[in-house]
Write a structure and sequence with these properties.
The chain is of the alpha/beta class and 433 residues long. The chain is built from 14 helices and 15 strands. Strands 1, 2, 3, 4, 5, 6, 7, 10, 11 and 12 form a ten-stranded mixed beta sheet that branches. A three-stranded parallel beta sheet has the order 13-14-15, with helices on one face. The longest helix is centred in the last third of the chain and has 30 residues, at 290-319.
């Protein structure tokens, strides 16, 4: 078992993280700890304070993706654990993940549950992917109320706390180092699923994340640039030819609209009818914010990456065993627009409608779940099953849970719950919803 921790000018957090691994319920002699010091800023201190760990030094900053890959080169364990340096592992973090690998040979990676440092708010319990390639943590920032304590298959886990079979990681070439940081974990999970390896979320494998953001001293536009560029790279590599032909033009157009909406750019300012009467004024520079510029530069550099990405795409498409349709349920809400900007939302809806993207990723449906059992805080088995079914389906569809039982005093739910009389139910089931 090999744990890889990447450090970049964060020795204090890294030392706390690694020392905390001594409290994990797993034989110390079977736990190899590898610390990668990106840019070699803290190497001397790390070697002095973490004598039991293997310290691997890189003269340059390889990013999270490259740092992890460098650490894996020195790994001797049959399972890899990737752990953020500002994370704290729960006592059962390792053994509960290892148990999944032993029980389910088709699982290639185990995604840990990640909470904030105080264990109150959710950091990661599920991953979603939009049709335009943006991966996101579902339910992030919400209270950890126990609603996400059941294991399930996911498209990807967060790289901040992720277990992977070593042979699988190496077979896939590890993280794509062109991503540097952001979405390298989304891309890895996507590729694993396409090849038939499952990624399993295991809530008992728990960590706590402090979120000393490595980007906190850097302008947000640089983060936006990486997110936009890497989303395009991920979808280009992993969607099938048929899906990509529909998605890529729309994703590029939507990236531009996100940029103009974020930067509050007047999209009609260069219309010929709006030119000033003085020709000299018509040559004045037009200001573009860094927030907007990030999207345009992301597309520019995505084009630069396309020749090398095309080679990766050939390999991924040749090795895939599952179709895009097979993975749509793991995307959760593929048609989620992700940004609440009015002009952007309008463009998103236009592209989805005109290009028929809902035919590829599935239209949300109206679903009726019917039970004759009481729906209340204390439900019996059949009612619990109906409730769980409605809860799962509500993640992607408009769901109504209807009971014919007189007792209907349901707890709060993300779907509609009501009592109906038999005659009303007959009308409802004929489509009059």
């Amino acid at each position: 078992m090999s744990v890889v921790v990447v450090n970049y000018r964060g020795a204090e957090d890294t030392i706390t993280c690694v020392r905390g691994l001594a409290e994990v319920d797993y034989p110390a002699e079977l736990l190899q700890v590898i610390v990668v010091d990106n840019e070699a800023h803290d190497t001397a201190r790390l070697k002095a304070e973490l004598p039991a760990a293997k310290i691997v030094t890189s003269a340059q900053n390889l990013g999270f993706a490259g740092g992890c890959n460098l650490g894996v080169e020195h790994a001797t364990g049959g399972v890899l654990a990737l752990l953020n340096n500002d994370a704290r592992a729960d006592r059962n973090w390792v053994k509960t993940a290892i148990r999944v690998f032993h029980a389910e040979p088709s699982v290639g990676a185990v995604a840990s549950k990640v909470l904030d440092w105080d264990g109150e708010k959710i950091d990661f319990v599920d991953g979603g992917l939009t049709w335009f390639g943006m991966g996101y943590k579902r339910h992030a920032g919400q209270d950890d109320d126990g609603a996400h304590d059941a294991p399930k298959d996911v498209l990807f886990g967060t790289g901040s706390a992720l277990f992977v079979r070593t042979e699988v990681y190496r077979e896939l070439g590890g993280f794509d180092e062109r991503f540097f940081m952001f979405y390298e974990d989304v891309d890895l999970g996507w590729r694993m699923n396409l090849r038939g390896w499952r990624v399993r979320y295991e809530p008992a494998s728990l960590t706590f994340h402090r979120h000393h953001a490595s980007m906190s001293s850097i302008d947000h536009s640089r983060e936006l640039y990486l997110l936009e560029r890497n989303a395009l790279a991920a979808l280009y590599k992993n969607f099938s030819d048929e899906t990509l032909a529909k998605v890529l033009p729309a994703a590029l157009a939507l990236c531009v609209r996100r940029a103009t909406a974020r930067g509050e750019i007047d999209p009609t300012q260069l219309e010929i009818t709006r030119r000033p009467s003085d020709p000299a004024l018509d040559r004045e520079p037009v200001g573009v914010s860094r927030q907007a510029l990030a999207g345009f530069l992301a597309i520019d550099q995505f084009v630069e990456l396309m020749p090398s990405l095309a080679e990766s795409r050939k390999a991924e498409q040749a090795a895939r065993r599952l179709s895009d349709t097979d993975l749509v349920p793991l995307m959760r809400k593929a048609l989620e627009p992700a940004y609440p900007l009015p002009r952007y939302l309008a463009a998103h809806d236009i592209l989805v409608d005109v290009l028929g993207l809902d035919d590829v990723f599935g239209k949300p449906r109206k679903i009726l779940v019917i039970t004759g059992d009481a729906i209340s805080d204390r439900m019996a088995g059949p009612a619990i099953r109906a409730w769980h079914m409605a809860d799962v389906l509500s993640g992607e569809h408009q769901v109504r849970l209807v009971t014919t039982n007189p007792l209907c005093a349901p707890p709060d739910a993300p779907f509609a719950v009501e009592r109906a009389r038999p005659k009303e139910l007959r009308r409802t089931s004929r489509g009059r919803t």
